[in-house]
Specification:
Blueprint: H1 2-20, H2 27-51, H3 57-84, E1 93-104, H4 108-116, H5 121-124, H6 126-131, E2 138-142, E3 145-151, E4 172-179, E5 183-188, E6 191-201, E7 204-213, H7 227-245, H8 261-273
Antiparallel strand pairs: 1-7, 2-3, 3-4, 4-5, 5-6, 6-7
Helix pairs in contact: 2-3, 4-7, 4-8
Length: 275
């Protein structure tokens, strides 16, 4: 099954790359539509069963959960519009030279855990830590997602934030949005890096990167200056964590109330939707 899923994923991406290479149309949105197709097909089946009068307890539960998920999507957009709506995403240009795809030997949830906690930054990302003010790193929760705000050290690259923004006056180096279960939207002064976390098996995950450039002058600067290096460092620590949790001596630890509120929120969502 793993080989088949990998083949389907690779084939789909290859076809889309071939069809849309060199065209203005943003292929990311095509990928998103394809990703949503199974969801809409499933919803259609649920409505068809309802029309036939087949409403068991499982059916009602699934209808409620998918309704809540659709509502969450609206709330995600409203949250991002409120916080980063001033960023002119319509001016972003897809840059295929920033495409990346990495296969890592770890469970997908461990990769998300790593993304959602900041206390590994000083120890794993030495260069990134010089860009960010670790003591003022912020994490905010919303229904179905997490926003992390990287505050820049003095003199480092930041957004030029307008007065109407709730973050006006802050030296923001990056906005890191995570949308349950595995979508990451990373806004930098140069543009947007999209990460898609794709489970391949219990112990392997594919991370797909897509880049959309806003200001070429900012490329190579600030918190988003060397994403390849940051990704490589994250892969090493996540794979090491996978080996650790797979050992017979592993036991769960306590959450850090300051640095792991995003991780705790993620785990609550896992319990809610995958119980």
């Amino acid at each position: 099954m793993k080989q088949f899923n990998t083949w389907v994923l690779n084939t789909t991406i290859y076809i889309i790359d071939f069809l849309y290479r060199g065209r203005d149309f943003q292929r990311f949105w095509v990928l998103e539509v394809i990703a949503r197709a199974p969801y809409f097909a499933f919803i259609s089946v649920l409505h068809f069963r309802e029309s036939l009068g087949l409403r068991g307890e499982d059916h009602v539960y699934l209808m409620k959960e998918h309704f809540y998920q659709a509502l969450n999507e609206t709330e995600h957009l409203e949250e991002m519009e409120r916080r980063v709506g001033w960023i002119p995403v319509e001016e972003f240009e897809y840059d295929e030279t920033r495409d990346r795809s990495y296969d890592i030997k770890a469970n997908w949830a461990l990769y998300v855990d790593n993304y959602l906690e900041g206390f590994h930054i000083p120890f794993v990302h030495k260069d990134l830590n010089r860009e960010l003010d670790y003591d003022n790193y912020q994490t905010e929760l919303f229904d179905g997602g997490v926003l992390q705000i990287g505050i820049a050290n003095e003199g480092e690259t930041t957004f030029d934030i307008p007065e109407e923004s709730p973050d006006y006056g802050l030296d923001v180096a990056a906005y890191y949005y995570w949308i349950f279960p595995g979508l990451m939207l990373n806004f930098y002064p140069w543009g947007l890096s999209v990460n898609l976390v794709v489970p391949l098996s219990v112990g392997s995950t594919r991370i797909i990167y897509r880049g959309f450039v806003w200001d070429k002058r900012m490329l190579g600067k600030g918190a988003g200056g060397d994403l390849d290096k940051v990704e490589s460092e994250d892969q090493d620590i996540v794979e090491a964590t996978q080996r650790g949790v797979s050992s017979q001596t592993y036991d769960r630890g306590r959450y850090s109330p300051k640095r792991e509120i995003g991780v705790h929120h993620f785990h609550l969502l896992l319990h809610k939707y995958y119980r």
